Amino acid sequence: MMTNSMTSRLRPVQPGRTTLVAVLDIGSTKICCVIARLTPRPEGKALKGRTHQAEVIGFGYGRSAGVKSGVVTDIEKAEQAIRSVVGMAERAAGLTLESVIVNVTAGRLGSETFSAAVSLGGQEVEKSDLHKVLRVVNERSVRPERSIIHALPIGYSLDGQKGIRDPKGMVGDKLGIDVAVVTSETLAMRNLELVLHRCHLQVEALIATPYASGLATLVDDEAQLGVACIDFGGATTTVSVFNDGHLCYADAIAIGGHHLTLDIARQLSVSVADAERIKTFYGSVLPGQADERDMIAIQPVGSSHDEAPGQVPRAVLTRIMRPRIEEVLTAVRDRMQATGMMDVCGRRFVLTGGASEMTGLPEVARRILARNVRNGRPMGIAGLPEMAKGAAFATVAGMLIYPQVCVQEYAEPRGVNKLTGTDGYLSRVGNWLKTSF
To answer: What is the DSSP secondary-structure string of 178-222?
Structure first.
């Protein structure tokens, strides 16, 4: 089982070597599994921190079940949904998965910045010193009810001199470090891991959904100067702030695009499926000149197909959707102001996720956030089907980039593989035999 200390156990991809990576995006409205081949980029063409290019060889996609706001609510349904999607990707790639990289939205994501220092005694900074200072941060930040997902060093100082990018090899008396720590509730993580074990999959690494979305949609200059990325998902909206090239803040709000669908279904008295269709085809959060004249045909719940459909002006739909979007954006703004992140993110916001493609959303976001806003789409992934190239698949694209950048964060040393015990190889084989026959 996971420990409450640094949970990243992923081996970074080796420069110059081709490797296979499998990622699983468990959302509230969709589940997506991608198997990709990471091949080294030609010399001189590598982006900052992106040494490989991803080529998709297996893709599986389906409706989510048994998951709400990133939390497992029905273990049987969640298992069936994951098995179905992973099976599709395995058949397309012609291989069987043993472990996957999984995203985390559940468990009230939170982030804090911790500082620590160790004495060097005038010696040169070595790798062991970096690990020592990170261990001090780890001991300070671990709490029994929360698990650490990421521990990202965002700045070093030597004898009080800040702004040092890499202190290795430098000489000083005192080494200080600032670490951005992203955490989540341990029990939510355990349930997620339990479902995957029932599907005979190991968790290779966890990545916070807002971090993945930011990796996929932000360009280097934005991440350097300061930017916030808002991912409008099905049942959650997540926020990440990057500055100086590092993730320094992550948060999640349990309101998403599906809440808009439910608002439409309740107000217009239509089925959830019809509400989703109406939102997709006609939804807008910005009133238009012809909205009072444009009529939308609706089929009330319980009416027979012979009955003539009712009609509502498009303006009514806009009036239903806009308050919910304003609620989400105001909550994001208030949380960021409370933590001081509005100053850190500079003058720029990037919107991504399935619900971000709504008409008029950037304009409303500009007014509420008082910042420059643009829509972000995943970049730099080849071989994705046409349907998976939109903003709804930004998290998946970011999870394929993550193995190339995870070398920056502190990873818990890998333990020796056990053959017996609760998490040993023989125990896992026994569990597989019990559940399968």
So the answer is: EEEEEEEEHHHHHHHHHHHHHTT-EEEEEEEHHHHHHHHH--HHH
Cβ neighbours of 291 (radius 10 Å): 17
CA 34 to chain centre: 15
Q: Could you identify the residue written with the tokens 């998951």?
A: 67
Shortest CA distance to 72 belongs to which of 194, 180, 155? 194
- 185 CB contacts (<8 Å, ≥6 apart)? 106, 107, 108, 145, 146, 147
The pLDDT confidence band at residue 142, using thresholds 50, 70 and 90, is low
| Nearest to 200, CA basis, from 30, 433, 418 | 433
- Cα(395)–Cα(388) distance, rounded to whole angstroms? 11
Are 248 and 115 in contact, with CB atoms under 8 Å apart?
no
**Size (the chain), residues:** 437
The model's pLDDT over 264-289, given as tens digits with 9 standing for 90+, comes to 999 999 999 999 999 999 999 998 88
Q: Residue 309 has what pLDDT?
A: 82
| Region of residue 326 (phi > 0: left; psi between -120 and 50: alpha; otherwise: beta) | alpha
pLDDT tens digits along 93-126 = 999 999 999 999 877 888 888 888 888 888 888 8
Residues 6+ apart with CB under 8 A from 241: 226, 227, 228, 229, 247, 248, 249, 250, 336, 341, 344, 345
Q: Taking the CB of residue 301, how many other CB atoms lie within 10 A of it?
A: 13
Whether residue 133 contacts residue 236, with contact meaning beta carbons closer than 8 Å, is answered with no
Query: Strand, helix or coil at 228?
Result: strand
**208, 188 Cβ separation under 8 angstroms:** no
Q: Strand, helix or coil at 119?
A: strand
User: Cβ(376)–Cβ(391) under 8 Å?
Assistant: yes
Q: Which of 33, 407, 432 is nearest to 197 (CA)?
A: 432
- Give Cα separations from 86 to 96, 343, 431 (angstroms): 9, 41, 20
